[in-house]
């Protein structure tokens, strides 16, 4: 499932869930650059090893979130972790591209490797709904991810019959991506897995009611009202800046990746 541009969200890619034999790497993304935005990985199951041109290396496990700032440019690889390659298992996650405003597109690259135990969990409807607050302030909880523009990111898990009203600032764009299960929206229509619900920024939230055990990723943020130019792994404001990104990558200004 892919979606383009519900500002500040640019692209959402749901990979898996896929059963994987030991020794097989369902990702195997070799070295590639990024500039001008933040690639975020929500790993639901499995194990990923990332490595980059600045000498950083890290492991994500099921439940972990990596909030990466590509900023002025970085080259990295994303592959199955050693432990996952040995054991096999189920790989499932979401990669989300979050835009950066013009004034932060050339920020220093960086990572926030957020382990699942650092993400606060809000329980609603007598525990039938759990909301992991990854980013932003939500009902008194504060997500660990730092963002350049105001964003709320919630990972919801709903038991059958569990209901929740999601309250969001009125001027935020919002979307809900259903990974699995079935949820009824605002007491009206039901939607199954791999559906994306997109809300206009004229309400103050929405209601979800689970008809089966469901997982939903809820994203909301202040729109970035700037021109957008994107090509492949670069997201900038103008075509000239895209050309500069291509040139800088070729000249080695985003670093050199050594495997
Ligand atoms: Mn990448």
Protein traits:
259 residues, mainly beta, Jelly Rolls, 6-stranded antiparallel sheet, binds manganese (II) ion
Q: What's the short story on this structure?
A:
The chain has helices at residues 82-87, 239-250; strands at 4-6, 9-20, 29-34, 37-45, 47-52, 57-61, 65-69, 74-80, 89-99, 110-114, 121-124, 129-135, 137-138, 141-142, 151-158, 163-167, 173-180, 182-185, 190-192, 195-199, 205-210, 214-221, 229-231, 234-236. 39% of the residues are buried.
CATH class of the largest domain: Mainly Beta
User: Main sheet: which strands, in order across?
Assistant: 1-2-9-4-7-10
CATH homologous superfamily of the largest domain?
Jelly Rolls
- What is the domain total for the residues? 2
C-alpha geometry: globular
Largest sheet: 6 strands, antiparallel
> Which CATH-level-2 architecture of the largest domain?
Sandwich
Terminal residue distance? 30 Å
Percent of residues in helical segments? under 10%
Low-confidence stretches: none
Provide an overview of this structure.
The protein has 259 residues and is mostly beta strands. The protein contains 2 helices and 24 strands. The mean pLDDT is 95. It folds into 2 domains: 114 residues, Jelly Rolls (Sandwich), CATH 2.60.120; 102 residues, Jelly Rolls, CATH 2.60.120. The longest helix has 12 residues. The site of manganese (II) ion has 5 residues, from strand 3 and strand 8.
